[in-house]
Design brief:
The chain is an alpha+beta fold. The protein folds into five domains: 3-144, Beta-Lactamase, CATH 3.30.450.40; 163-259, PAS domain (Beta-Lactamase); 273-449, Rossmann fold (3-Layer(aba) Sandwich), CATH 3.40.50.300; 453-539, Helicase, Ruva Protein, domain 3; 541-599. The chain contains 24 helices and 22 strands. The strands form six sheets. The protein has a five-stranded antiparallel β-sheet with strand order 2-1-5-4-3, with helices on both faces. Strands 7-6-10-9-8 form a five-stranded antiparallel β-sheet. Strands 12-15-18-11-19 form a five-stranded parallel β-sheet. Strand 4 (89-97) and strand 5 form a beta hairpin. It is elongated, with a radius of gyration of 44 Å. The chain binds adenosine-5'-triphosphate (ATP). The site of adenosine-5'-triphosphate has 16 residues, from helix 11 and helix 19. Keywords: ATP-binding, DNA-binding, Nucleotide-binding, Transcription, Transcription regulation. GO terms for molecular function: ATP binding; sequence-specific DNA binding.
Length: 599
């Protein structure tokens, strides 16, 4: 604590003391700087007083005293000036703050009459000086407090400005007391025109009805704000400032919608962030699709993904987004077939307040707006009604959206990835899909092969899905028996990878050993007729596969019987030796239950 901070006040007090007692006054701080002085020492303000002077002695002592015998008093013993000293008497009174001596008030009598008056009024004089010292101390403490409050306010200001949300603090009636940098940017506010005005006046577009109604925190309300051509949409919250029983103000927090969405994306993004290595498949068809998609990820052009249901179209769309330059921005999927036609328009494009009966206060942001700077994934685009196709075409051609009930176009920057499991060309021919839109969407076509056309990927998919299911279900199934794998490899998979995924999950649930067996598979897959029928339809088995299957069948039929190998050989029309050779060749064991494939 330093008296330097309050020199003006100390000087005033020195002058008061001098006029009351009629002697010269000098006040020094703890560093022996002359902070204030009257009379002949007035010109010496700012200079240092010697450590060996009576002031130095008083600082060390920390107690008040009167010197009526200058030059001979013990306080004068070390003073360099004692032989030239013209003083008749001196009084010293320490200034203390919490027991710490922060300075000294000194009175100097240069005349005998002054000395007499000091000596005769010792007690009153010391009491008066102590009160003056306390006054200086309290001024100093007050100054320290004010400094601390200023520092705290500045710290708070810096913290608030560093927050990435707009913050506005108002008093109990809504008068703006403070706002941070982000709020200024968000609402284009300027300090002079805003401070002490009512928040309703400034942000009239936003309905702060709740502010006056409740004293509880309110979260995640939507707002939309317009200032000339500028507009912003977002979410806000209100927190009342309650002191004792009274609400003395409110703190509003605002985020613009895309930033709020970025936060959500950051939080959940890691769980759904997809990269190309998450797409399993090494077949030629899959390798080609991945290569094309990887190239498309680097481009801003629109992509149309075609493929049967469950082939991984959304997986591809996500990988394209998360591998491209928009990966830090939102990925917004919307299934055009899953949303009723009358709702789809407002889901995609949003609406303005009062656009229709039941429209929410403040309106609603559509998926396109939410996806701004990111990617929108329009799944099942083939099911989009014709009138919305026209609106979508405008987005593609002019990069603007028009909200329901809106009177202006809002510019947006969204990458569109559309997907369909329908034959869009066919739909165009039948007049159900706009030709111009088809061409606009089909800038980069991407065809995802069905699982049926890449059966060689089944076993690596099974391995991966097994690991995924083990993790999900907390199980430790290590692999799948050959017989069970053959069934999976022979099935037609109309539901593609999604169906395979569900099948493995079912099997892992059913499996009580460490390998999935035929018994663990769903019945529909084990229905031989189905398989044979479907195989006959589309897939030709190699002679080796046929031989393998028949040997496997014969071994199973004869299992447990006496001379089972002889019987199996007989059924197959082979010699015993040939059967043994073939078992070795196919790595089959006598007991089928021992046969398995591990991943
Ligand atoms: N190649 C793959 N590797 C790993 N998992 C896959 C693969 N393909 C699809 N899947 C999984 O299959 C499921 C269905 O995939 P997705 O939803 O991407 O298919 P879709 O073609 O978009 O389906 P729909 O046409 O029904 O919307 C998802 O759980 C996905 O993770």
């Amino acid at each position: 604590m330093n008296l330097m901070r309050i020199t003006a006040s100390v000087q005033k007090i020195a002058e008061v003391i001098a006029s009351v007692i009629n002697v010269d006054v000098t006040i020094v701080d703890c560093e022996l700087n002359r902070i204030a002085a009257t009379g002949c020492y007035g010109d010496h303000i700012g200079t240092k007083v010697s450590r060996n002077s009576v002031f130095g002695f008083a600082l060390r002592q920390g107690e008040g005293f009167i010197i009526d015998n200058p030059r001979n008093h013990m306080a004068c013993k070390q003073c360099e000036d004692q032989h030239q000293c013209k003083e008749h008497a001196q009084v010293c009174c320490p200034i203390k703050v919490y027991h710490e001596t922060v300075g000294v008030i000194g009175l100097i009598a240069f005349e005998e009459t002054q000395k007499k008056s000091i000596v005769n009024n010792q007690e009153n004089l010391m009491a008066f000086l102590h009160r003056m010292a306390d006054l200086i101390a309290s001024k100093l403490m007050e100054e320290e407090k004010t400094e601390k409050i200023k520092l705290l306010a500045r710290e708070l200001e810096i913290v608030l400005d560093a927050v990435d949300r707009g913050i506005i603090a108002v008093d109990a009636v809504g008068k703006i007391m403070h706002f941070n940098l982000k709020a200024a940017q968000l609402f284009r506010l300027d300090e002079k025109s805003v401070i002490h005005r009512n928040i309703d006046e400034i942000l009239g577009e936003i309905d702060f009805y709740d502010l006056k109604m409740r004293n509880i925190s309110i979260k995640n309300r939507e707002f939309s704000y317009k200032k000339g051509a500028y507009r912003v949409r977002g979410i806000y919250g209100i927190n009342p400032i309650i002191v004792g029983m009274d609400t003395v103000g409110y703190v509003f927090t605002f985020s613009n919608i895309s930033e709020a969405l970025n936060v959500v994306n950051d939080v959940i993004g890691s769980a759904i962030e997809t990269k190309f290595h998450h797409i399993i498949g090494e077949s030629e068809g899959m390798a080609r699709a991945k290569e094309e998609a990887q190239k498309a990820a680097e481009s801003p052009s629109t992509i149309l993904i075609q493929g049967e249901s469950g082939t991984g179209k959304e997986l591809f769309a996500r990988a394209i987004h998360f591998q491209g330059s928009r990966r830090r921005r939102p990925f917004i999927p919307i299934n055009c077939a899953a949303i009723p036609e009358q709702l789809l328009e407002s889901e995609l494009f949003g609406y303005e307040e009062g656009a229709f009966t039941g429209a929410k206060r403040g309106g609603k942001a559509g998926k396109f707006e939410l996806a701004n700077k990111g990617t929108i994934f329009l799944d099942e685009i083939g099911d989009m009604p014709l009138h919305l196709q026209a609106k979508l075409l405008r987005v593609l051609q002019e990069n603007v959206i028009e909200k329901i009930g809106g009177r202006e176009y809002i510019p947006i920057d969204v990458r569109i990835i559309a997907a369909t499991n329908k034959n869009l060309e066919q739909k165009v021919m039948e007049g159900e899909f706009r030709k111009d839109l088809y061409y606009r969407l089909n800038v980069i076509p991407l065809n995802i092969p069905s699982l049926r056309d890449r059966m060689e990927d089944v076993d690596i998919l099974v391995g991966n899905l097994l690991r995924k299911c083990n993790h999900k279900l907390g199980k430790r199934v290590e692999g799948i028996q050959t017989g069970a794998l053959r069934i999976l490899q022979n099935y037609q998979w109309p539901g593609n990878v999604r169906e395979l995924e569900n099948t493995i999950e079912y099997a892992v649930n059913m499996c009580s050993q460490n390998q999935i067996s035929e018994e663990d598979l769903p019945k529909r897959l084990k229905n031989r007729e189905n398989q044979e029928q479907s195989n006959a339809d589309t897939r030709v088995m190699t002679i080796r596969e046929l031989e393998y299957r028949e040997i496997e069948k014969a071994l199973k039929l004869c299992e447990g019987s006496k001379q089972s190998m002889d019987k199996a050989a007989e059924l197959l029309g082979l010699s015993r030796a040939t059967l043994y050779r073939k078992l070795k060749e196919y790595q089959l064991k006598q007991s089928q239950s021992e046969t398995n494939v591990s991943f």
